Structures are given as C-alpha cells and as structure tokens.
Structure to design on (290 residues):
C-alpha cells in the first residue's frame, strides 16, 4: 500500500506560526520530484512542539495541497493510547490516507503493552496504520515477534524501522513475509533494507534531495541493485550531514540555506552550531544545492 520514497516533511515556521505558503510550496516540489508519499507531523515535522490545532491544520493543508496525487500518512502517535486514538480519528476525518504511529515514548511499555496499544488504535480507527520503531528516541524497541503479532491485524500495514539493526529488520521480514511492508526509518539503512526485501523509506534526506531518494527506491524496485548501490554511496555524505545535530535542526537549516523556508525552529530545539553550519554548507555545495 505504501512504498517508495516518502518524505517526513518539515513544518516551516514564520514568526512563531506555521508558514502555510512555504509548506504548500514544499509539497508541490516533492510531488514534482517523484516523492511517493507525504508524511506530515512526524519527528522531522517537529510534531512534539505543535499544538493540537496546528497539528490538525498541518495535516489538513497537506491533504488539500496533495489532492489525492500521492498518499498522505499523518503522524498521530503519542505516549498515551487514548490520545493516539483521538489524533488518529481526527486525521482520518481530515482525509489522511494513513497514520504513522510512533511507539509510546518515556513510559517504556512492555512488549505486551505495545501490542495492546497498537491493537487498540487499530480497532478504534479504520485507517491503514504504520508502526514506527525508533528506540533512540522512545527508549523502547518493538521486537520482531511483537511486530509479527501486530501484522495479523488487517489495518496495520507497515512499519517504519529506525532501530538501525539490520538483523532485526531481516527477522521482521522473515516473520511477516508479505503480511507487512517494512520501510527504512534511517537514510543510511535504506539501501541494505531494500536489498533485504523492504519496500521504501521515510527519508529525512528526501527533504533536500527528493529526486535522488526516489531514484534510489525505484532502482531497487526494478532490481537494479548495482546502480542503486552507487547512488547509496553518493548520498551518504548528505545522509550524515542531516544528523550533524539533532534532527530536524540540520535539515531545516539546509532548506533555509536553499531558500525554501525561513530558518526557524521551536525551543527546545535551537540553531545549528557555527562549526556544523559550515560543514553543512560545504556538503550542500558539493551536491550543487546552493
């Protein structure tokens, strides 16, 4: 259902408010560059600092601008099951094609708790759901056996795997087969994950080079792994630059340098350090992005 290059789009701000004009422009650019789905209100979209009203408006605007040309997968995960259900219902009402559900963070549920959380959301909202495993941010790891149990629920259709553990990815694919789509959640793992049998990526790097990430996914889809491998290595310096500091600080700074958004983050995130700003500028220039 969801495959290829999907962008967890940044949320542009201007003078403290969501910059709807800039967001609309980014969406049009991504679609023209071959992005396969737009993911608003994810980690890269600074969802943790959006009010409910802003969160829903970003999803709504994305749905309006996309206008059914590609899927919209709205980030609606929270560390409370009831809150996750509330936001996911709202995303469906707005018109999202799916929801991305980060594992409940901070409260560190057990594997059984994770299973019950996702099952409850799936039973409450008839919408295609994408699990999101990112232990580095949530302090909990959705284990392959739990993913396999969840894959038996009809509207749980995919997982964004950002553990960085290829052995875990391989085990998920082995256990779930065609019952679940596995997507990369880390740009440096996209190529190996696709070779293992994954179907795409929710890519931070796609925010700045959407065409190249879409090409990488398309090459693997066609079985052209040698060409894809070369592109993987060409993209690696940019992938690394996107994580010079906490995401989305570098990617937002990059898009500002490229003239696509105003450079504005919300506390507790702050501007890129001077040293890393220069490293980022050099990397972008090496790709002809400035």
């Amino acid at each position: 259902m969801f495959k290829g290059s999907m962008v967890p789009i940044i949320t542009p701000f201007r003078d403290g408010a969501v910059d709807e004009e800039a967001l609309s422009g980014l969406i049009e650019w991504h679609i023209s560059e071959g992005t396969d789905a737009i993911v608003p209100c994810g980690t890269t979209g600074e969802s943790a600092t959006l009010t409910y009203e802003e969160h829903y408006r970003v999803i709504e605007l994305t749905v309006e601008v996309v206008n059914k040309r590609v899927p919209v997968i709205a980030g609606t995960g929270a560390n409370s099951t009831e809150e996750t259900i509330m936001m996911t219902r709202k995303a469906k009402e707005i018109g999202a094609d799916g929801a991305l559900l980060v594992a409940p963070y901070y409260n560190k549920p057990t594997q059984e708790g994770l299973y019950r959380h996702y099952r409850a959301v799936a039973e409450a909202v008839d919408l295609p759901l994408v699990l999101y495993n990112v232990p580095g941010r949530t302090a909990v790891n959705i284990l392959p056996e739990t993913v396999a149990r969840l894959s038996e629920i009809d509207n749980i259709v995919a997982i964004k795997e950002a553990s960085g553990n290829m052995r875990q990815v391989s085990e998920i694919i082995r256990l779930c087969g065609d019952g679940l789509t596995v997507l990369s959640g880390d740009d440096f793992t996209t190529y190996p994950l696709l070779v293992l049998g994954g179907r795409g990526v929710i890519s931070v790097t796609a925010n700045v080079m959407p065409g190249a990430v879409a090409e990488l996914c398309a090459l693997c889809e066609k079985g052209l792994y040698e060409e894809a491998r070369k592109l993987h290595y060409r993209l690696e310096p940019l992938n690394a630059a996107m994580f010079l500091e906490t995401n989305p600080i570098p990617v937002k700074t990059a898009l500002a340098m490229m003239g696509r958004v105003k450079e504005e983050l919300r506390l507790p995130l702050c501007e890129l350090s001077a040293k890393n700003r220069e490293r980022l500028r050099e990397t972008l220039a090496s790709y002809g992005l400035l």
Remarks:
- DSSP finds twelve helices and ten strands in the chain.
- The chain has a mean pLDDT of 97.
- The domain at 4-224 is CATH 3.20.20.70 (TIM Barrel).
- The first strand starts at residue 4 and ends at 8.
